[in-house]
Amino acid sequence: MHTKLDPWSSSDITDYSKLFEEFGISPFENLLPEIPSPHTYMRRRVIFGHRDYEQIAEAMRSGAPFSVMDGFMPSGKVHLGHKMVMDQIIWHQERGASAFVGIADREAFSVRGFSWQKCREIGVEEYILSLIALGFKPDGLIYFQSGCKSVKDLAFELGVKVNFSELSAIYGFSGETNLSHMLSVATQAADILQPQLDEFGGTKPVVVPVGPDQDPHLRLTRGLAGKMNMFRIEERETSEGWKYLSIRGKGAPKEALQELKKRIPGKVKLYEEHIDVLQTPDSAFLERFGLQISQPEKRKYFMTQIQEIAKFANEAKPPEFSEYEKYFVFRKIWKTTRKVLEEIVAEVAAEFGSYAFMPPASTYHRFMSGLQGGKMSSSAPDSYIALTDDPKEGAKKVKKAKTGGCVTLEEQKKLGGKPDECSVFELMLFHLLEKDEELLEIRQECISGTRMCGSCKQLAAEKMYEFLKDHQEKRELAREQLNEYNIVYKN
Ligand code: TRP
Ligand code: SF4
Question: What architecture is domain 18-228+358-365?
């Protein structure tokens, strides 16, 4: 069966592994060792998938520029589900990302029929106050789509590269879909690509943390990123099996290709519409190890890396040089080469008035389930906890929540509970318990039947009360600090 991913109806995704196969989302787990002090959501597998997050991890490690971008449709109350996204925005901002938050009023206007005024009220009162209260720093940009000229202009330009068949294939749009709804899709793509515009520092990795329902937008945007570019970098293979990089520039002016050729040192071949990067002067060194690599060496950091690799390789004399190490050297040089080429390509593209977008990276987190079992739904206030719920109410909702416990205490002592099907455990796992050990202990006790649901509910309700109380105090402080923030409203 086909997995349905529809951003406008709350889709019920139960089998996340399908997303890996069908949409090419990669498991996040494999990346954990590359991430400096991973977020709780990462450690606890709440974030289960990603696309291209390697680039983000690398930027965090090396201090290279990168961005985090997210959007919120101002549709109703801000709740724990939104907190998950906000937490991730803030976490990346703390690790050096320039942060962009769009309030998707164009989407709410066209899909929900909300007035601009209503969008603004909900946008500020619900989302922006909580975002700031959770720790968003004033150096990030917050904007309403309808007030952001660069996003609107870019959306229009992107529209040239999207046609109706594509939209109906991705979103199931039909003859009934209104034009503004389609425009709001282009606007979201523009949201995601905006951090790479020249005025924000140009080409760079951008991560968009989302729930899997938003993936259609990312697929569309990744495609658009490529279509808007003058050049495309591809990995190719010669008939003898050597890999090399090729820069394709269909329709690019001849002068742009010539300029590229000039800037990439080493063995570079210029053709009608593309350039092949075959070898650079000192690849002789690598050939000693049975490696042949495309290797331009322009930037300083590239040279440092090559020297590091060379030192490593020289110290590990060829006979002791294992296959694994060869692979390691190869990968490292390959990746660096690509990065330098991307930089040169972006520079030249900018000089010739074209974009050079990298496809956006993304992370995917599990949805929280409804407190009563089933889905969270805005029409059932007991199914979710809003960040503005009265703390006492919030605690009450926790106490009424559905658990994974047995019907009778005796049964539970005998059979144990099911923490993985328990919304109270989920609250602790996602939001309330900081210490992994404490969580694991509770899980163990639950499974073995030594823990009863009452004590979990008590603990979670107390923590929820504290959290909401504290958060709401911070929201009031945020209200006073609003003018210190860079917020672009609809004018
Ligand atoms: N479509 C998103 C939602 O329904 C909002 C959104 C707008 C967004 N622009 C975005 C999400 C950019 C991620 C990135 O909430
Ligand atoms: Fe959930 Fe705790 Fe009950 Fe286990 S004991 S089912 S974790 S509430």
Answer: 3-Layer(aba) Sandwich (3.40)
